[in-house]
Amino acid sequence: MKKMMHTKLFVALLLLVTATLLVSAAFAGTSTETGNRSQSGSSDLLSQLNSLPPFKFEKHKYGIGYGLCPVYTAPYTDAYRCANGKASCQTNAAMDDAGYADVPGWLLVRYEVNSGGYRVGYIPPKYVKGFKSKMAPHFGWIPAKANDYIYVSDNPYRHDDSFGRLDPGESFHILSRYNYYAKEGYDWWYIECYVDGQVARGFIDYYGASFTLGN
User: How is residue 120 annotated by DSSP?
Assistant: First the structure.
């Protein structure tokens, strides 16, 4: 009789423990209130990532008066250039500038395109010589690695427009956050990567891009 009671007591305790574990599992999860759920890696890098200052632009209603200038995705002459290598900004029309980049003389600009949305890129020094900007972009260089396919765009006003794709395991650097159009539902990380063997800078989805911080 005592043996049977001990057995029943053991079974009851086992059921209680199992039920407790199931309840705990049902309520386990990750809060979505802390930002991008796809960020992972060291806590130090995550802290650096979330403290990156978003860069800003100054609007020029009538442009800055340097005519039609070539635009590259990154401040290098051998960088990737969108529009089949023909991306250009008409600086005599409405446009914005974010100041001179980390590579001396290269002006970071944003301008509207005929197909809708905007492009963000860099005008080489010889085309904007003498222009004085009030702005200055501040970039971090936080290493990251793609966990999944990540699409890269130079158009921060559309989600369905990309010029490149990072494959899982591919490395890149996060430079800044771009939340200029966050109220309209466009929130991005600004990164530097490689596209077709050429260095490029562009935007990846702040909430949708899955990556791990670190080399």
Answer: E
Phi-psi region of 7 (alpha: psi -120 to 50; beta: other; left: phi over 0): alpha
Question: Do 142 and 189 belong to one domain?
Answer: yes
**Is the same domain home to 170 and 189?**
yes
* CB distance 69 to 128 below 8 Å: yes
For the whole model, what pTM was predicted? 0.79
- Which position has the token pair 């632009």? 57
Q: Containing domain of residue 155, as a range? A: 39-53+138-213
Report the distance separating Cα 199 and Cα 195, nearest Å: 6
Same domain, 160 and 176: yes
> What is the full per-residue pLDDT of the chain (215 aa) written as tens digits?
444 444 444 444 444 434 443 333 333 332 222 344 466 766 888 888 888 888 889 999 999 999 999 999 999 999 999 999 999 999 999 999 999 999 999 999 999 988 778 899 999 999 999 999 999 999 999 999 999 999 999 988 877 889 999 999 999 999 999 887 667 667 899 999 999 999 999 999 998 899 999 88
Q: How far apart are CA 170 and CA 193, in angstroms?
A: 9
Residues 28, 14: Cα–Cα separation, whole Å: 21
CA distances from 198 to 6, 73, 134 (A): 72, 10, 30
Domain boundary among 75, 102, 127: 127
Residue 44 and residue 144 share a domain: yes
Residues forming beta bridges with residue 193, ordered by sequence position: 200
Structural domain count of the chain:
2
